[in-house]
Amino acid sequence: MKLITYSKNIFLPVTNLCRNRCQYCSFRRNLDEAHLISRSAAQQLLEEGRDHGCSEALFTLGERPEEVEGFHLMLAGEGREDLLGYLVELCELAIEHDLLPHTNAGLLSEEDLATLQPYNASMGLMLESCAKLDAHEQSPGKNPELRLKHIARAGRLHIPFTTGILVGIGESWQDRIQSIQAISRLHDEHGHIQEVIVQPFDPKPGTAMSTHPRPEREDLVRTVRLARELLPREVAVQVPPNLADPLPLIEAGADDLGGISPITRDEINPNSSWPREEELKRSLFAYELKERLPVYPRFIRRGWHGSKTRRLTAALASEDGLRRKSISSREWW
Ligand SMILES: O=c1nc2n(C[C@H](O)[C@H](O)[C@H](O)CO)c3cc(O)ccc3cc-2c(=O)[nH]1
Ligand SMILES: C[C@H]1O[C@@H](n2cnc3c(N)ncnc32)[C@H](O)[C@@H]1O
Ligand code: SF4
Predict the structure, then answer these.
(1) Ligand-binding site membership of 18 (annotated)
(2) How is the cofactor bound, in the record's words (predicted)?
């Protein structure tokens, strides 16, 4: 039976302040409406996550919020001077609560990426697309060259990495192919890509792209097929089951469903609720559905997960025999 994996996570929106203005995004807010997660709110979510058996704390935030005037006042409200220090503190808090951090903070400097590495089991940054698109006209951080550089830097630092493409934001088929090939080349060089997300664009009311059509199912199927063909076998192709029916995409070669949360919503796609584990088990009965950690086994074996997560990762990986399980359909270990 083919193996399909997912991670049980909680979604922590650290701040929705962002220097970019992606035309599809409803997560970002202007200063007057923006928030910074408080220690106590984070703590409460982490406690709930632990109680629900989650293994991943997904920290997501706008890119370089420090560049927005006024953010330092929000930080000061939490008694901090810099965002990085606060992110490290939140990751430490997650680890104390038995949850493995996975941070996607947008573009980071080499120094900041290196600072976060020890505290994260894995990290992520979507390439989105290797093409320069209108949707990113006001988003300096979505410059594909900068994103590819960031992903390469993560590779040099041995950070197990999640990236992916956003499908249906104005890119061509050629762009999709080239984006996947670019990710594949980075993996050939550094070996750090654990999964590539094929993320369908989902129109959001109130955004510039609210009337832009969502991609056709057949286009998603073709994109997943392309990704599966162009990427080496050990790199998982991830599809979010709250944005499109996963079954045809799994049939086309997808092998991971990403983070699924029993308690928090997908703050990027707040109106698309995740299916429950039982629902997925029912609809994907022809597959072996299996929970995984936010860091894939081969990276644990190589010791690439952040040093501060070592004990927790070992404990979680051995918990239900994950460590020894032999798996037929995929090079899981
Ligand atoms: O719940 C979500 N998880 C998202 N994830 C998280 C992902 O599902 C899991 O955190 C990873 O599979 C690690 O276990 C992302 C992670 C990244 O590094 C980059 C982009 C995303 C996008 C989403 C998303 O839109 N919704
Ligand atoms: C975290 C990731 O969420 C994705 N993202 C942001 N906005 C949308 C949307 N409207 N539809 C689908 N995905 C989106 C981007 O790819 C970002 O990198
Ligand atoms: S997708 Fe990320 S970078 Fe783009 S506006 Fe939203 S929060 Fe900012």
Answers:
(1) yes
(2) Binds 1 [4Fe-4S] cluster. The cluster is coordinated with 3 cysteines and an exchangeable S-adenosyl-L-methionine.
- The response to whether 91 counts as a known ligand-binding position is no
Domain ranges of the chain: 3-319
Helix axes 173-190, 144-156, angle to 10 degrees: 20
Which ligand has the shortest distance to the CA of 220? 2
Find, among 114, 98, 107, the residue nearest to 55 by Cα.
98
- The answer to ipTM > 0.85 is yes
- CA distances to 74, 80, 88, 243 from 214, rounded to whole Å, are 35, 40, 36, 10
Q: Is 201 in the pocket of ligand 3 (CB under 6 A)?
A: no
Phi, psi angles (nearest 5°) of residue 193: -80, 120
Angle at 178 between CA 229 and CA 137, to 5 degrees: 140
Q: Give the number of the ligand closest to the Cα of residue 17.
A: 3
Q: What is the DSSP letter of 309?
A: G
**CATH class of the domain comprising 3-319:** alpha beta
- The model carries a pTM of 0.96
* C-alpha to C-alpha distance for 80 and 74, rounded to whole angstroms: 9
Task: Give 94-126 pLDDT, tens digit per residue.
Answer: 999 999 999 999 999 999 999 999 999 999 999
| Environment class of 206 (CB within 10 Å of its CB; exposed 0-12, middle 13-18, buried 19+) | exposed
Do the beta carbons of residue 296 and residue 121 sit within 8 Å? no
Nearest to 160 by CA among 193, 184, 190: 193
Alpha-carbon distance of 161 to 127, in angstroms, equals 12
262: tokens are: 């029993």
268 Cβ below 6 A of ligand 2: yes
* Torsion of the alpha carbons at 228, 231, 236 and 239, rounded to the nearest 10: -50
Q: 22: annotated binding-site residue?
A: yes
